[in-house]
Design brief:
By secondary structure, the chain is of the alpha+beta class. 38% of the residues lie in helices and 12% in strands. It contains six helices and four strands, in the order βββαβααααα. It is elongated.
Length: 180
């Protein structure tokens, strides 16, 4: 649904990680992917799918001539959730499923696996201990993981760098020896 004129008021409902339901509703204009159009109203915390539908309908009809809301793909509600968290609205997979592809500029920058050392990818000084390596990996994994809107290749490069850095952090210092 990329058309700006709204044929029918719509609601998108998605389950949350806590087992609740988050809804987003559009009644003044249709949702759009690029640029992402924020919903007219949204809320989370409904205990059941029916509760989410009823709450969205109640809010949409308050003082308006909106009778019913047509339910659309849950990716739209997830897109609004991601936007509220400061992330791009859609992962590449979701954008393709909704009929578009996100521009490359909207993707988070990933490390260059062939040119960057394990320490650079993790954002650490060479020789960091295992605890710092793990901490840096967790932080960067949140940025690069595909489930959080990151690039799969960047995440794979991060994971490989993590394994190399852990191996180096665990091995005894080789500063006095030369490699041949």
């Amino acid at each position: 649904m990329t058309e700006n004129r709204l044929l029918a008021p719509v609601v998108s409902i998605t389950p949350t990680q806590r087992g609740r339901f988050f809804w987003a509703a559009w009644w003044t204009a249709a949702p759009s992917q690029s640029p992402f159009r924020k919903p007219d109203a949204s809320n989370g915390g409904a205990a059941t799918l029916d509760d989410a539908r009823e709450e969205a309908a109640r809010i949409a009809s308050a003082g308006r001539s909106v009778q019913t809301l047509t339910e659309i793909d849950p990716r739209w509600a997830r897109g609004w959730q991601r936007t509220l968290r400061g992330m791009p609205p859609f992962t590449e997979r979701d954008a393709r499923a909704l009929g578009g592809v996100p521009p490359a500029a909207s993707r988070p920058p990933g490390p260059k696996p062939s040119n960057a050392s394990a320490w650079e990818v993790l954002g650490l000084q060479p020789g960091a201990d295992a605890a710092h390596v793990k901490q840096a990996y967790r932080r960067r994994a949140l940025e690069t993981h595909p489930d959080h809107g990151g690039d799969p290749a960047a995440f794979r490069a991060l994971h490989a760098a993590y394994l190399r850095a852990l191996e180096r952090a665990a091995s005894p210092s080789q500063s006095g020896r030369r490699r041949r």
